[in-house]
Every structure is written in structure tokens, then in C-alpha cells.
Design brief:
7 helices; alpha/beta
Amino acid sequence: MFKKVAVIGAGTMGAGIAGQVANAGIDVLLLDLASDGDDVNATAQRGLDRLKDPDQPGLMDKTVSSRIELGNIRDDLHRVAECDWIAEAVVERLDIKHQLYRDLSAHMQDGAILTSNTSTIPISLLTDGMDDDLKQRFAITHFFNPVRFMRLLELVRGEHTRPDIMKRLADFSEQQLGKGVVECAD
């Protein structure tokens, strides 16, 4: 259904989404801000480390982590061109999300789907300023924490989101990720 997924944001939700996609057997590119110091991918690494926490494991087993590649937005954003779904899970600030969407659009492959994990910002505001083609491939995929154990996924369609995009996301989420999808209004 999806060959490779990029998750932007390696916090609790982003790392959880990356882990659940990797659990489904899909390769993941997990990006976050570049860190100061020797390891520029340290922020993404911390997200992966949280998935391996034995008290609340986000991965089915340790081998799953090999499906998650780490990177940072500064050096590796161009690699989203390898992905057919980009899931954004960054801080809930519209200005940051808008800038990220502009940066992503320069690298996304034709037909790739872009989603946000937001639970607070209306999709109409998220898509403000997007070109019409990207608006048609944009939706909200709101996962719940902890992603591996919470079955619910809210799927929100925008005014311009194509029905086939919604179906593809719903089918993948139900069949591959084991989620109970509820389509919600904006």
C-alpha cells in the first residue's frame, strides 16, 4: 500500500507513528530538527530510543528498529522524495507547519500524500496557502498515544481532499496498522 513513509517530528507522537508503520513492515524515514554537537540526528535518535523502552515498547520486537532510518530536517528533507506518505507530527504552531509544508512540497514525489497528526488546528488553516494539487493529497491522521496500543485513528478530510486519498489512508490504517478509523469533520 505504501512503500516508504517519512515521519517529520520524533517526539512522542511522531516516534510512535514511525514505530507503528515499521511494525507493519514498512520502511520509515524519521526526521527531526538537527541537533547541536557531534550527532546531528540525536533528536531523532532519542525518539527511536523511546520506542525501545521496555516499560512501554513502541516496537513489536527489537529487529523492527532496523526499518527506521534517522535523519534531520536540515540535511535530509530532500529524502522525502523516496516516500509516498509524509506524516507531519511537529509542534502545534501553524507558522512552523506552514513553513515545513512549503519546504516539503519542493521535494515530494508526484502523488505522495501529506498528513498532519494535529488535534487542534483545523485542516482549512493547515492548507491555507498550499497549491491546489497538494490540498487534494492532504488530510489529518490523528493518532492517539500510545500509538501502538490505542486503536482509534481520526481521519479528517479537507474541502479539497480527494476521496481516493481518504480511502487509501483508511484502508492502510485499518489493514496494515490495525487501527479503527473514524472519519471526522473538520
